[in-house]
Amino acid sequence: MIDLEIPKKFVPLVKQAGSMADEVFRPVSRKYDLAEHEYPRELDLVSALIDGMSDSGAGNGAGASGSTRAAEDEEKPSQSAKKGGNKNGANMSSALSIMETCRGDVGLTLSIPRQGLGNAAIAAVANDEQKERYGNRWAAMAITEPDTGSDSGNIRTTATKDGDEYVLNGEKIFVTSGERAELVVVWATLDKSLGKKAIKSFVVERSNPGLKLVRLEHKLGIRASDTAAFVLDDCRVPASDLLGDPEIRTEGGFGGAMQTFDNTRPLVASMAVGLTRACLDFTRAALEKAGHGQDWDAPIAAQSYASARLVQMEADYEAALLLTLRAAWMADNGKPNSMEASMAKSKAGRTCVDVALSCIELVGVDGYAETELLEKWARDSKILDIFEGTQQIQLLVVARRLLGLTSGQLK
């Protein structure tokens, strides 16, 4: 069973992440929202703190680079489950800490060095030698292409074996932290005719001359985070930089590459949960200041619309929170969590957008003007319902799992 209290060993980590949100991120949040593409120098100190906590063990493995699956085979119960135990590991600590930092600023959270989504991809599928070699380097993740959005199985970037190297050719867009990262995890196909079964991920050095930066995007939200577009032009990478199994397994399909999403989708859901909490806290305080405080003893029908709506949003928040914690807990305990990760991402992303916009309606001008951060949070919220798989894709994944259908049977 999941214990719904924060594990005692994570309490210091969560408190530190909360302090970071309040004392570091929020004071500079508007500054870097306006100064798009300018690197937030304050994050150097933050990343040094995270590295120090990781080295000492105080961070309990929190962070994208630590979010890997339990060592047990996913087809079998974990050892802790066999013993009736309960493991709270790196995935849970990462989810809890990200919720706190995103209560401060999502874009700044995404910009913390060495904590990119590419780091989670490496943690998910790299072998021990690769994890040691990539060490504590900052990795972005490049999946999306101009004609291939949420359908990752239709990737057109190619990887052709040439001796001890692979030659990558194609185009990637919407690469979070693509300019700033040291490494880019690029998804490419070994054989277009085999569809998603031939999709593999490769670690490419950002300095590789075949990886050419085309532009940085100007965005609606998360403007503190750089978002890059690349062209891969005869980009040569060592064969040892292919993550996971180099063989095309027709029976295993997309598994190795897609396992990345089982790790990263709960993290993105955590971002949405944290931002939702920020919006609700701000709105509750604003309503109380205006004399519309919550009366917990009165029935919903007897309360003002603003108070009743706030209760509804709190309920949605709790549902998103619990789904997110379950997906992270399952990963920590070696349980297949593909459906649960998509459920969490779907519910948390949609809830975040709905809550942010509803909060603006409730507080009026204070929500729409740049005098408060709620306006910014509403803009930031939308990406959390899009990247790492759109709302529609998440629901499709859930439907396939519930009905026992393949992607070919249910599109």
UniProtKB/TrEMBL annotation:
<feature type="domain" description="Acyl-CoA dehydrogenase/oxidase C-terminal">
    <location>
        <begin position="252"/>
        <end position="403"/>
    </location>
</feature>
<keyword id="KW-0285">Flavoprotein</keyword>
<dbReference type="InterPro" id="IPR006091">
    <property type="entry name" value="Acyl-CoA_Oxase/DH_mid-dom"/>
</dbReference>
<comment type="similarity">
    <text>Belongs to the acyl-CoA dehydrogenase family.</text>
</comment>
<dbReference type="InterPro" id="IPR037069">
    <property type="entry name" value="AcylCoA_DH/ox_N_sf"/>
</dbReference>
<dbReference type="Pfam" id="PF02770">
    <property type="entry name" value="Acyl-CoA_dh_M"/>
</dbReference>
<dbReference type="InterPro" id="IPR009075">
    <property type="entry name" value="AcylCo_DH/oxidase_C"/>
</dbReference>
<keyword id="KW-0560">Oxidoreductase</keyword>
<dbReference type="Pfam" id="PF00441">
    <property type="entry name" value="Acyl-CoA_dh_1"/>
</dbReference>
<dbReference type="InterPro" id="IPR009100">
    <property type="entry name" value="AcylCoA_DH/oxidase_NM_dom_sf"/>
</dbReference>
<dbReference type="GO" id="GO:0003995">
    <property type="term" value="F:acyl-CoA dehydrogenase activity"/>
</dbReference>
<feature type="domain" description="Acyl-CoA oxidase/dehydrogenase middle">
    <location>
        <begin position="140"/>
        <end position="235"/>
    </location>
</feature>
<keyword id="KW-0274">FAD</keyword>
<dbReference type="InterPro" id="IPR046373">
    <property type="entry name" value="Acyl-CoA_Oxase/DH_mid-dom_sf"/>
</dbReference>
<dbReference type="InterPro" id="IPR036250">
    <property type="entry name" value="AcylCo_DH-like_C"/>
</dbReference>
<feature type="region of interest" description="Disordered">
    <location>
        <begin position="57"/>
        <end position="92"/>
    </location>
</feature>
<dbReference type="GO" id="GO:0050660">
    <property type="term" value="F:flavin adenine dinucleotide binding"/>
</dbReference>
<protein>
    <submittedName>
        <fullName>Acyl-CoA dehydrogenase</fullName>
    </submittedName>
</protein>
